[in-house]
């Protein structure tokens, strides 16, 4: 493994992310095809995948919002107790 091999590998890893035209998700620039939807063949399966992914994204944000509200309430209670 020479110096040329290392620099070529670094350049390949530094490629910007791509956005898939089919599913809309981003994937590493070193990948030639979107790893999320490359195995999905039908449009129905693709729509199902998109809906599932969107539902997971929304579900992941709910606990964070709850924690933020809880911290704000604790802060207000602490301030009022002074």
Description:
The mean pLDDT is 81. The chain has helices at residues 3-13, 43-81, and strands spanning 18-19, 26-27. A two-stranded antiparallel ribbon has the order 1-2. It has two helices and two strands, in the order H-E-E-H. It is elongated and about 60 Å long. It folds into two domains: 1-39, no CATH class; 42-82. The protein is mostly helical.
Poorly predicted segments: none
Helix content: 55-70%
Major beta sheet summary: 2 strands, antiparallel
Strand arrangement, largest sheet? 1-2
Distance between the termini: 66 Å
- The Rg value, from CA coordinates, equals 22 Å
Tell me the series of helices and strands, N- to C-terminal.
Answer: HEEH
Query: How much beta, percentage-wise?
Result: under 5%
- Described by its quaternary structure, the protein is single chain
Q: What's the tally of helices?
A: 2
- Please count the beta strands (DSSP E, at least 2 residues each): 2
Number of domains: 2
Mean pLDDT over the full residue set? 81
Rough outline: elongated
Structural class: mainly alpha
């Amino acid at each position: 493994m020479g110096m040329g091999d290392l620099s070529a590998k670094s350049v390949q890893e530094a490629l910007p992310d791509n956005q898939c035209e089919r599913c809309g998700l981003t994937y590493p620039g070193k990948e030639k095809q979107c790893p999320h939807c490359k195995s999905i063949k039908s449009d129905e399966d693709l729509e199902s995948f998109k809906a599932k992914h969107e539902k997971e994204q929304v579900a992941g944000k709910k606990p964070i919002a709850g924690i933020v509200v809880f911290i704000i309430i604790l802060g207000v209670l602490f301030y009022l107790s002074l």
